[in-house]
Amino acid sequence: MAKAANLGFPRIGARRELKTAVEAHWKGNLSADDLAAEGARLRAAHWQLQRDAGIEVIPSNDFSFYDHVLDMTAVLGAVPRRFGPVGDHVAPTQYFAMARGTAEAPAMEMTKWFDTNYHYIVPEFEEGQSFRLASLKPIEDFLEAKALGIHTRPVLVGPVTWLSLGKTKAEGLDPLTLLSAILPIYSDVLRRLAEAGADWVQIDEPVLVTDLSDGQRRALSTAYAELATAGPRLMLASYFGSLDDNLDLALSLPVAGLHLDLIRAPEQIKRVLEAGPDKVLSLGLIDGRNVWRADLARALDAAQTAARLHGTGRIQIAPSCSLLHVPVDLDAEAGLDAELKGWLSFARQKLAEVATLTRALNDGQVAVADALAANAALVASRASSSRIHDPKVKSRSASVGPDDLRRRSHYQVRQRAQAAQLNLPVFPTTTIGSFPQTAEVRRARADHRKGRISAADYDAFLKRETESCIRRQEALGLDMLVHGEFERNDMVEYFGEQLAGYAFTRFGWVQSYGSRCVKPPLIFGDVSRPQPMTVEWSGYAQSLTDRPVKGMLTGPVTILQWSFVRDDQPRSETCKQIALAIRDEVADLEAAGIKAIQIDEPAIREGLPLRRADWDGYLQWAVDCFRLSASPVRDETQIHTHMCYSEFNDIMPAIARMDADVISIETSRSDMELLTAFGDFEYPNEIGPGVWDIHSPRVPPQEDMITLLRKAASVIASERLWVNPDCGLKTRDWAETEASLKNLVAAAKALRKGDLTPLPVEGGRHSDTACACEEMTG
Ligand SMILES: CN1c2c(nc(N)[nH]c2=O)NC[C@@H]1CNc1ccc(C(=O)N[C@@H](CCC(=O)N[C@@H](CCC(=O)N[C@@H](CCC(=O)O)C(=O)O)C(=O)O)C(=O)O)cc1
Ligand SMILES: N[C@@H](CCS)C(=O)O
Ligand SMILES: [Zn+2]
């Protein structure tokens, strides 16, 4: 008989209970014991929910108080020295210190988990790195479930993925050379799990869907030759793409099971079945990365072929990857209309889909005839719905030509026109858009949503916040102002709420990092802009001041990347539709007298496909979409963009092709080292290298910023330099914001009349940390 399996369940809780508990603990309002109890309550509820849904292979150790990669780091005792010695086990204070930092020890880096919007804590390898078993969480969680009468399959991040995601702080240390040191600990954990009663363990090796080096291939062979003998049978999980050229390697590993992502790469099952491996195959047939109801007939077809060729008893049916990346329960969404709701499926519903498919395979379609018929009707209703298709949007998108992607004149011509219109000093100062989203701002929004304050009162509140923000910026002496983004819950959700073709949820939270969540809006149809989205706020802010106010938009690629997207047309087409909507907003902002418009694209690099061979195709349409959104304006109107993810070296030509008049980037942490990519490439337009690391509550002194700017001037001509923070200020408070901006303006003024001697950029810490808009300490 085939088995219904799951690879991981969202840990945050349907009402973000984990966030509430963890943040209360950080504030000192919940003891470590009470936090542990809340964790246990959530785990028990989630295991029970999965069992009730008909899942037979239920994961454990997928739960985490912060991040599962950090949990593996704790298991291996890889605690960087600055967090103190590793005792018998990594205690909660040490664990959270690693994630969030302390006054003495900066947090470990955080970056994106493959091509998702989930962030993991980057393992760090130091000089003389040693390891020891320092957390028994995988075993404890297994036993906890066992005590509840639930037999689980523990999940571990695999050794090659864990090492490959890590960063070495020791000159010349290749992380893969540490494999032999960590394998005994993995073996120990597996042995202990076997003793505790685990018969299977899921080992996640998503690196298997990336371009592997020879070293990684060797490491995989070495690792699994050793781990396969440790006790439990291993289900090696690949996901987020195709095994492709790594398929033979994966099949050669002596593991008992192999999980395949058949949503991202349905074609790979054919080659696997032809090879006839001596393994249990876990078929990832239900989309773990998106929220659409599965087409069960199609999935069943694939499952039946596999069962016929491989044997039903050696098949598991599963989501394509962990369900960490989708919201918990569609049933909570009372506000969604019935038709749309019928097209959707969140984590709980996806488990039901897995169970239905498995029963259909085992007992025949008649056993689940009603469920299959209902599914077929809903899938058909979505495919034929007139709500999805807007002929006007389609024909406008089809008529986009090369001229729509071009500004009217070359940058040098635009630059002169903009200088004449804006009349800014050298080293102009600005910020990236958002100002502190205080508890008061969030509360006012919640009050408005819950009907406790009227729309008029909410609007008046936001106008007061905006005016106060403008006055503060004037008093600080900033040259180009922003309205502050107080009206936004999130830089993507806010636009999703206003665009046609989009729906949004009330409780569709997905963990982004630690206790922080996002609520991605969902694109179900052709996207268009029924009315202006930001013009009122930018126009109001501009009416309050003589200084230029920068309009503030999120770019098409970032809106696409941070939404749940349609699966019935290419992402490039959806992105083009969003770009046209943003283009209209850009044109309206200009018509309303806005002289500079920033189109944020922090996710453009994150959207890069996992395989390098696919990069050029993606960058072509992604950059085209940015250009489409940015190009309706006159030469005088200055287009800014902002990116707070680093590592520009390998995509410099694409960044240059975006042709933004000004780009602001995150650089302060790397001591301007990241700027060298722009210097080496001879990037021609203006640049604002961030001089204030807004990750940190530290107020940077004026001298530090001057030093950074002098370093920047050694790479980029000073007349093309802007002075700004690394990213938006929404996670900071007003006191540190005003103190830091005071120093930033003073630094720019000092440079205007003072020492411009360039300072060389040295090999600063190279950073590709996550977006600076994340509060590392949050
Ligand atoms: C830049 N980043 C972003 C990413 N993706 C996005 N979609 N958006 C991003 O900005 N990916 C990469 C990074 C990830 N970084 C972050 C940074 C910060 C957060 C964060 O703070 N998340 C908040 C939720 C933000 C939000 O949506 N707020 C809403 C709702 C607030 C709320 O919970 N209200 C309560 C009541 C509150 C009260 O009464 O006081 C309620 O509704 O019940 C809003 O402001 O209206 C978080 O809390 O986790 C995320 C990613
Ligand atoms: N304008 C946005 C960009 C964040 S990446 C902000 O300032 O928050
Ligand atoms: Zn940013």
TrEMBL record:
<dbReference type="Pfam" id="PF08267">
    <property type="entry name" value="Meth_synt_1"/>
</dbReference>
<feature type="binding site">
    <location>
        <begin position="16"/>
        <end position="19"/>
    </location>
    <ligand>
        <name>5-methyltetrahydropteroyltri-L-glutamate</name>
    </ligand>
</feature>
<dbReference type="Pfam" id="PF01717">
    <property type="entry name" value="Meth_synt_2"/>
</dbReference>
<keyword id="KW-0862">Zinc</keyword>
<dbReference type="GO" id="GO:0003871">
    <property type="term" value="F:5-methyltetrahydropteroyltriglutamate-homocysteine S-methyltransferase activity"/>
</dbReference>
<feature type="domain" description="Cobalamin-independent methionine synthase MetE C-terminal/archaeal">
    <location>
        <begin position="427"/>
        <end position="749"/>
    </location>
</feature>
<dbReference type="InterPro" id="IPR038071">
    <property type="entry name" value="UROD/MetE-like_sf"/>
</dbReference>
<feature type="binding site">
    <location>
        <position position="727"/>
    </location>
    <ligand>
        <name>Zn(2+)</name>
    </ligand>
</feature>
<dbReference type="InterPro" id="IPR002629">
    <property type="entry name" value="Met_Synth_C/arc"/>
</dbReference>
<keyword id="KW-0677">Repeat</keyword>
<feature type="binding site">
    <location>
        <begin position="432"/>
        <end position="434"/>
    </location>
    <ligand>
        <name>L-homocysteine</name>
    </ligand>
</feature>
<dbReference type="GO" id="GO:0032259">
    <property type="term" value="P:methylation"/>
</dbReference>
<feature type="binding site">
    <location>
        <position position="562"/>
    </location>
    <ligand>
        <name>5-methyltetrahydropteroyltri-L-glutamate</name>
    </ligand>
</feature>
<comment type="similarity">
    <text>Belongs to the vitamin-B12 independent methionine synthase family.</text>
</comment>
<keyword id="KW-0614">Plasmid</keyword>
<feature type="domain" description="Cobalamin-independent methionine synthase MetE N-terminal">
    <location>
        <begin position="4"/>
        <end position="307"/>
    </location>
</feature>
<feature type="binding site">
    <location>
        <begin position="516"/>
        <end position="517"/>
    </location>
    <ligand>
        <name>5-methyltetrahydropteroyltri-L-glutamate</name>
    </ligand>
</feature>
<dbReference type="InterPro" id="IPR013215">
    <property type="entry name" value="Cbl-indep_Met_Synth_N"/>
</dbReference>
<comment type="function">
    <text>Catalyzes the transfer of a methyl group from 5-methyltetrahydrofolate to homocysteine resulting in methionine formation.</text>
</comment>
<feature type="binding site">
    <location>
        <position position="485"/>
    </location>
    <ligand>
        <name>L-homocysteine</name>
    </ligand>
</feature>
<feature type="binding site">
    <location>
        <position position="642"/>
    </location>
    <ligand>
        <name>Zn(2+)</name>
    </ligand>
</feature>
<feature type="binding site">
    <location>
        <position position="600"/>
    </location>
    <ligand>
        <name>L-homocysteine</name>
    </ligand>
</feature>
<protein>
    <recommendedName>
        <fullName>5-methyltetrahydropteroyltriglutamate--homocysteine methyltransferase</fullName>
        <ecNumber>2.1.1.14</ecNumber>
    </recommendedName>
</protein>
<dbReference type="InterPro" id="IPR006276">
    <property type="entry name" value="Cobalamin-indep_Met_synthase"/>
</dbReference>
<keyword id="KW-0808">Transferase</keyword>
<feature type="binding site">
    <location>
        <position position="644"/>
    </location>
    <ligand>
        <name>Zn(2+)</name>
    </ligand>
</feature>
<feature type="active site" description="Proton donor">
    <location>
        <position position="695"/>
    </location>
</feature>
<feature type="binding site">
    <location>
        <position position="112"/>
    </location>
    <ligand>
        <name>5-methyltetrahydropteroyltri-L-glutamate</name>
    </ligand>
</feature>
<feature type="binding site">
    <location>
        <position position="600"/>
    </location>
    <ligand>
        <name>L-methionine</name>
    </ligand>
</feature>
<feature type="binding site">
    <location>
        <position position="666"/>
    </location>
    <ligand>
        <name>Zn(2+)</name>
    </ligand>
</feature>
<keyword id="KW-0479">Metal-binding</keyword>
<comment type="pathway">
    <text>Amino-acid biosynthesis; L-methionine biosynthesis via de novo pathway; L-methionine from L-homocysteine (MetE route): step 1/1.</text>
</comment>
<feature type="binding site">
    <location>
        <position position="485"/>
    </location>
    <ligand>
        <name>L-methionine</name>
    </ligand>
</feature>
<keyword id="KW-0028">Amino-acid biosynthesis</keyword>
<keyword id="KW-0489">Methyltransferase</keyword>
<feature type="binding site">
    <location>
        <position position="606"/>
    </location>
    <ligand>
        <name>5-methyltetrahydropteroyltri-L-glutamate</name>
    </ligand>
</feature>
<feature type="binding site">
    <location>
        <begin position="432"/>
        <end position="434"/>
    </location>
    <ligand>
        <name>L-methionine</name>
    </ligand>
</feature>
<keyword id="KW-0486">Methionine biosynthesis</keyword>
